[in-house]
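In the design runs reported in the main text, the only information available to the sequence generator was the tokenized backbone. The following block is the verbatim input for one such run; it is reproduced so that readers can re-run the procedure and compare outputs position by position.
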């Protein structure tokens, strides 16, 4: 598919592409530049669209368990750095 640029540097996104990405008037898009020179166009998804994607934990974690996890992680880190 092709699209011509206007003198202002604007291009029309073809209808098939807009439908595939679910774009509607007023939506925003993001451009990503890859090292190989290609450019990718993606819809900018609002944060509200993320709601409900991650399930809530079944039970809350206590502060004590969080402290223990941090201590265990730090102890593991110390073991890894002391091997040098």
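Verbatim output:
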């Amino acid at each position: 598919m092709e699209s011509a640029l206007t003198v202002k540097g604007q291009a029309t996104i073809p209808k098939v592409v807009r439908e595939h990405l679910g774009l509607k008037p007023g939506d925003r898009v993001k451009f990503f530049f890859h090292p190989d020179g290609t450019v990718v166009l993606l819809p900018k998804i609002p944060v509200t669209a993320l709601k409900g994607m991650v399930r809530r934990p079944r039970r809350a974690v206590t502060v004590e368990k969080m402290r223990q996890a941090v201590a265990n992680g730090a102890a593991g880190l110390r073991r890894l750095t002391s091997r040098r």
